[in-house]
Amino acid sequence: MNSAGRGISLQVLIALAIMLSTLVLGGALAWQGYHGIQQTLVAAAGDTAQQLGKTINERARRLIDPAQSSIRLLAYDSISEADDLPQRLERLPLLVESLDANRMLSAVYIGYPNGEFLLVRRLRDVEIRERLEAPENSEFLVQSMSLGEDGAMLGEWRFYDSALTLLKTEARPDYRFDPRTRPWFSEGMEREDTVLTRPYVFFTTREIGLTLAQRTVDGGAVIGMDASVDDLGGEVQDLRMTPGTEMAVVDSEGSVVAYPDLQRVIVAEGEQLRLSRITELGVESLVRMFAEPPAGNSPQRYLVDGQEWYGMQTPLSSFAQQDVRVLIAVPAAELLAGARQALFDQTVWASVLIALLLLIGWALGQRIGQPLRALADQVRALAGFDFSREVGVSSKVTEVGELSHVLRRMSRTIHNFQAITLTLSRETRLESMLGGVLNRLVEATGVDGGAVYLHDDEADALRLSTHCGEKAYPEVLHLVARSHEDLAAAVAQALESQAHYLAVALNDRSHELLGILVLQLAPEHRQEGEVQQPFRTFVEELSGAAAVAIETRQLIEAQQRLLDAIIKLLADAIDAKSPYTGGHCERVPQLAEMLLDKAVSAETGPYADFSMDEAELYEFRIAAWLHDCGKITSPEYVVDKATKLETLYNRIHEIRTRFEVLWRDAEIDYWQGIASGGDQESLQMALERRRAELQEEFAFVANANIGGEFMKDEDVDRLREIGKRRWWRHFDNRIGLSHDEAERLAAVPLAQLPVEESLLADRPEHLVPWGDRKPPVDKDDPRNVWGFDMRLPAQAYNYGELYNLGIRRGTLNEEERFKINEHIVQTIIMLNTLPLPRQFKRVPTIAGNHHEKMDGTGYPRRLRKEDMGIAERVMAIADIFEALTAADRPYKAPKTLSESVRILGFMARDQHIDADLFRLFLTSGVYREYGEKFLRREQLDEVDIRPYLEMLGGS
């Protein structure tokens, strides 16, 4: 023992140092172990959730697949060809057999295009029999709608026993059912595959199920089946992870398809039944999950009413035509109970270990000197995960010196490993990533240098990507070796060096060669001339991570190139669709990027604080290339319409033919007058006068068809006067027509031939109604979820001759202008249907707002300046300027730079475009830069921008 005057002994100090270091290290390891177990349990819960989803999905499939098989077999049956009810009832045993083959089916039925209908329902429940007043021993109910002799629909119910003996027939005048009005019938007729509806509550049986519909092979009818999925609730109850686990199957609208407590799933509203909403279920954890669904397959933590939950979801592919998924919420306390017990056990063992090390330190303290305290502090820092500090001390004690050397190397290696991990995970550029990893690897392993070669598939050679060290490496290697020994020898030979190398192949997950890692070895890494096996294993394992990183980045780059090519391909296809807009989708993005770059680089003015990172710029480029993707739906004959009467052809030829008929009529009148003994001279003068009138009137109509000048009121009135001329039609105008044309003529009274008609007319058959194709652009339309606010014409098209010839300016009528403007509506709808990643979520907004105006008078949403970002306002200017200067439009001559800038100036003054951006457009010279790149030489006139800057000075 040391005397009191000498203070605390070294033995005590060393023991305390060991105890404290071990305490910190043990605590950190225990806490790290707890978190590791916690993450493992959470990850296992996620895997279990996916497996539960597969289990429920498989069990749902076992409920649905037999019904699908049955309905597909029934599609080949001759029941679709049965013309009357007796013939259909002959197939009743087959329909009953379908019900017997699958106990989950509650009804099978068939609907016909003429409105007839036949349904067979199994009466399983006594309550149902009593409610339907079925005779005793009734097993089946047959409901039918058939055409009677008078052509009226007749509703009947028939009750059968298990042997299909008819027990009772009831005429049901109040039974009215038209299958053609049901979604399952209309969707079934339009599709060849099986239609699967959303789950709902069957009114008759109070079961939860869905309807399957299948068009028969001959297309003469649609067969439907009602399949129950009630058993899924029991499956959910049986598959819970913990006692407190909450599970439910829901669809995309929040309706609960399955839950252990069936009474909470079905909600009664008067006499109607429906599925409960997730918000009505009374389970707050599931409500929170549905409102904020977990991202990906990993469990997500929620805090609900002060209690922690882990939420998971998995989709059910059995419901292929609906978005149905399983929601699983597990109480965190139950899920992590094992982790907390493990933390307690680790704490106990750490305490025992600390006590043991304290005794050992007491015994060894006298032999270990002062340097051990410093090493203890350094170890304590390592235990606190601080690997950046210099580690090591000077000591004459061999063990302490060796420990110091090992700790120094370990700290340096761990620090380099951290740097390698960060480089692999954070560096996005392949060359920079490989350079950083190689430098850290060389430093961590203590080799003399190294290089990374990447495989060039086209040249079948290895090209140098990065290297470090004093050795110079060739740019290209041609190697055929595959084994490690042969590869290393081949590298040494190719490098013409006597040094020793370790070469490791970098292979992707398909074992295809990505490249090689070459390390120039130091002597300590060799043993009897060979590379030490632990060192080789370490390098190979680390190279695997590098190979995965290389493959991932190459895949990302390839996918980005593919995405860019597809977007460019779509834009080129839109431009190629019409010979008059070619290049528009290519020029607008380039002009938009020119202006946006000026805004980003501005150091003063309103855009001094405006910036966009690389991802936002790429998002903008995608939106710019796709800004007119909706034009793929625009009819070419509308976009390219060069005359007022042009549809798929120029209808002026029809009118010319009518004038020819009137010309012949004039000649016939002349010869008839001659034959009747009339005065030839006066008849000849009348003939010439009529001919001159016809020539002059046709010239007027033909000139009006061109649409080059503004139509005055007197011109429109004269068209109507010319149109009043009459001519005789002797041929039926209802034969040789398309189906749509015949439908439009169906409501027009049939005239007795020959019939006298106007030379020009707006006839009822010229009006083409919207029908089911009515776009959702009215702000009060419930389908309008995009916020459109556009005036919808009453008709889809109006081919009226006077109506089109009377167009005041240009060649397009109101309906056709809407059809062209609708391309931006389709652009927004199409882009919103794409599963865009998070960094591209604003693509539909940027692409879809370039026809909006700063004063709110644009379309399709009537947004104002404050409702739009800078990117959308840039797109508006680029689109207008390109359209003004384009030289490939049939309806206008290309404007010069000065004319285009003048028009934009007026638009900026009138708050149609952003005045600040227009000022930047002028002062930065973007207009001139674009013009020199894309415009014709004769368009490049001088532009004085000062008047426009003065005009915008107060804006």
TrEMBL record:
Residues 735-937 form the HD-GYP domain. It holds the Pfam family HAMP. Residues 366-419 form the HAMP domain. SMART domains: HAMP, HDc. GO terms for cellular component: membrane. InterPro entries: GAF-like_dom_sf, HAMP_dom, HD/PDEase_dom, HD_GYP_dom, Sensor-like_sf. This is HAMP domain-containing protein. CDD domains: HAMP, HDc. GO terms for molecular function: phosphoric diester hydrolase activity. GO terms for biological process: signal transduction. It comes from Zestomonas carbonaria.
